[in-house]
Amino acid sequence: MVVSVIGFVIALFFFPFLFLKSDSKSEAAPQSTAKTAENACALTITVSGSDIPLDLEEYVIGVVAAEMPAGFNLEALKAQAIAARTYVLKSTNYGQTPIEPTVAKQVFYDEDSRKENWNDSYEDYEAKVREAVESTRGEVIEYNGELITAMFHSMSNGMTESSANYSGTDLPYLQSVASSDFQYADNYETTTSLTIEEWNSKLNIQSTIEDISQIRLQKNNTGRVETVTMKDHEWTGRDFRTLLDLRSTDFQIKAQDGQVVITTEGYGHGVGMSQYGADALADNGLTAHKIIEHYYKNTSVEKINCKK
């Protein structure tokens, strides 16, 4: 459901019964696949567009490298590895179906991409990411003995989003929790300015700059926009975010100097683990397992059930 901050979140940085629709990194919906992997210790993953299956752990290395900055704390990278491993096994039924290397699922960088992105830091970053993956080899997140839908996002707005708010599906392990990552992110708040012509084009409406004063934003208990209304138009916060290509659904809108100014906080759908939050927790001494425990309530980290 790294590279520069913006690069990784776009690369950033979330299924069989789908959330209403996917709008950002790992934003697919939960599923209830039973844990029935044959020869789980020798699992392979096929990335869409390639006919060559990858060893599960090699695949996870490529995901961690793409989804989280390698400069992050090692414990945060470990938490990302556990979440990524859980996500791919859940969404592909233990490797039985391919997975797209996109923000709608999990971004994946092969070795050539990692070399290109990391340049002179390749050897150090490659070793660090491999250490994070190897030290968590075979670890997955479970709730009541089943793999969870391990959604994650770039940075929260101070609170993560619940699955109930996001999709209407209430999952006990995807509840809203405090996440202070905004204190650590340089680009936590962003501002976008649109001309009224750009605004009308993106929303496919006809409005004036004066109409902006009539906009009403209904926010939920985590500060994210549920609905946007203006005159006889109404959008969900998620649809509005997609139409205007905003970084999150926590936004404010105003008219200023003849333009529409939109201020957005956080980055991503907000459900599950915040990557910047994980790094902040790791910097404050939490281990990868404690980070997982914080963001995915009432879960446990277990080894893949390998059949002899």
Please name the defining characteristics of this protein.
single chain; 308 residues; alpha+beta; 17% strand; Stage II sporulation protein D
Notes on the structure:
Residues 54-143 form the Sporulation stage II protein D amidase enhancer LytB N-terminal domain. It holds the Pfam family SpoIID. This is Stage II sporulation protein D. The protein folds into 2 domains: 5-184 and 269-303, no CATH class; 189-265, no CATH class. A hairpin with a 5-residue loop joins β7 (216-219) and β8. It is built from 10 helices and 13 strands. Residues 1-24 and 27-40 have low confidence and may be disordered. With 308 residues, the chain is of the alpha+beta class.
Question: What's the Cα radius of gyration?
Answer: 20 Å
Count structural domains: 2
Strand order of the largest sheet: 4-3-13
- Helical fraction: 25-40%
Low-confidence residue ranges: 1-24, 27-40
Secondary-structure element order, N to C: HEEHHHHEEEHEHEEEHEEEHHE
Task: Give the end-to-end Cα distance, rounded to a whole number of Å.
Answer: 31 Å
Biggest sheet: strands, sense, closure? 3 strands, antiparallel
Number of DSSP helical runs = 10
The coarse overall form would be elongated
User: What do the pLDDT scores average to?
Assistant: 88
Number of strands: 13
Judged by helices, strands and strand pairing, the structural class is: alpha+beta
Query: Approximately what portion of the residues adopt beta-strand conformation?
Result: 15-25%
Domain Sporulation stage II protein D amidase enhancer LytB N-terminal: 54-143
Protein name: Stage II sporulation protein D
InterPro entries: Bact_Sporulation_Assoc (IPR051922), SpoIID/LytB (IPR013486), SpoIID/LytB_N (IPR013693), Spore_II_D_firmicutes (IPR014225)
Organism: Ureibacillus chungkukjangi
